[in-house]
Amino acid sequence: MTLRDALDFALTSLRGNLAKSLLTVLGLGVGVGAVLTVLSLGDAGEIRVEEEIARLGVDKVWFCAENPAYPLTEDCRAIAASTGADVCLGASTMDAVSLGGQTVYAQIAGYDDGLETVHHPSSVQGRMFTAREYSGERVALLDETLAGRLNAAVGDFINCGGRRYCIVGVVAGMPAQSASLGSGMLLLPLQTWQDAYALAPTELALAVPKGEKAGELAEDVLAKLHNLPGKYLSVTLENEIDAAKSVVRIFVMVLACVAFVCVATGTIGVMNVLLISVRERRREIGLLKAIGATSRQVALLFLLEAAAYAALGGLLGILLGLGMTALFGALIGLMPQVKLLHMGLLLAGAAVLGLSFGVIPAAKAAGLPPAQALRTE
Predict the structure, then answer these.
(1) How many whole angstroms separate alpha carbon 99 and alpha carbon 140?
(2) In whole angstroms, what is the distance from residue 31 CA to residue 263 CA?
(3) pLDDT in tens, 48-94
């Protein structure tokens, strides 16, 4: 019996009971598809987490004064700027703002002329501050949240802290380090903010140049700041993004392990079908041995049948996985990240498991004595 004969024999067996074969392949395919879906959406989720944290400022370093008696000053700004990075002094507080009879509490933030180069807000309506306005003009920018709460428009005058400010623009993408949990933000030039609240800047933000690490840059600036009176602290989001990605990976691995149980269940189904097949085909096995087939050749027949189940189940699983990934990705708003490596490993894993679980039925078939098998009714 040649290998081609054995393969034809195995495929004929699969076609002989098509419904049983389809259900067996489907059981394995669902498991493979579930694992591929979890891994693909997990990779997409990890990328989304990284993007969201990056939007919050992973490419920035914030500095603040540990002792209010020694606040951030222009000297601090100059030291940070000496690294060649863009810097921005800022301050913030909570206060009531009113417009058109409506009063709400919002974050009131002040920034110097480094606002656009460091925090990169985008103008939705109107414009950004001009160089002259940074010197203390009573003008304001609103983020989309606050503009929506007050139904504000460019050109309106908004009241805050007993002063009136002309709204010159509505912006998006505000720096999250000063954001306030959905209450909205009113931006003023830093000098205007200090005139209103008579307080020193509370934060110094530094944009990390490409190719440099935030942590190393923070240490460099802190070493120089410590030459000034007072103590200063730095904050970066490098550790936060690493921790968030680790959590996503762990969650994905847990789900992948659960989904892998489905694959194992599918391969157990393959073994069960083959064991039943051995029992149903005892007479056929006896005839094969009677005409000269060896035990090894008989075992090969059932191993090839197991391999066929595994291959078909793996391919079906890849197709199901691609479909489920696209569907669930669209439902939850993630761009699927399907990797060829994952598909290759899943196909190989399904094949190995299928063959492994086919060993017992193959051994049982190979061990049947011809005389006993031929007596089977």
Answers:
(1) 13
(2) 4
(3) 777 766 666 567 788 887 777 777 877 778 877 887 788 888 888 99
Measured at the CA of 266, the angle between CA 262 and CA 270, to 5 degrees, comes to 165
Cβ within 8 Å of residue 32, ≥6 positions away: 263, 266, 313, 314, 316, 317, 318, 320, 321, 346, 347, 350
Detail the DSSP E strand segments found in the chain.
60-65, 87-99, 102-111, 122-126, 139-143, 157-160, 163-172, 185-189, 203-207, 232-235
- CB of 108 within 8 A of CB of 94? yes
pLDDT on residue 211: 66
pLDDT at 244: 75
> What CA–CA distance (Å, rounded) separates 185 from 188?
10
Supply the pLDDT for residue 300: 76
Cα–Cα nearest to 355, from 311, 319, 317, 293:
311
Mean pLDDT of 22-41: 85
Contacts of 227 by beta carbon, 8 Å cutoff, 6+ apart: none
pLDDT, tens digit, 9 for 90 and up, residues 94-104:
999 999 889 99
Cα–Cα distance for residue pair 243/251, rounded to 1 Å = 12
Residues whose CB is less than 8 angstroms from the CB of residue 325 and which lie 6 or more positions away in sequence, other chains included? 36, 37, 40, 41, 336, 338
Predicted TM-score (pTM) of the model is 0.57
Nearest one of 28, 53, 14, 23 to 240, comparing CA atoms:
53
Distance (Å, whole) CA 177 – CA 205:
9
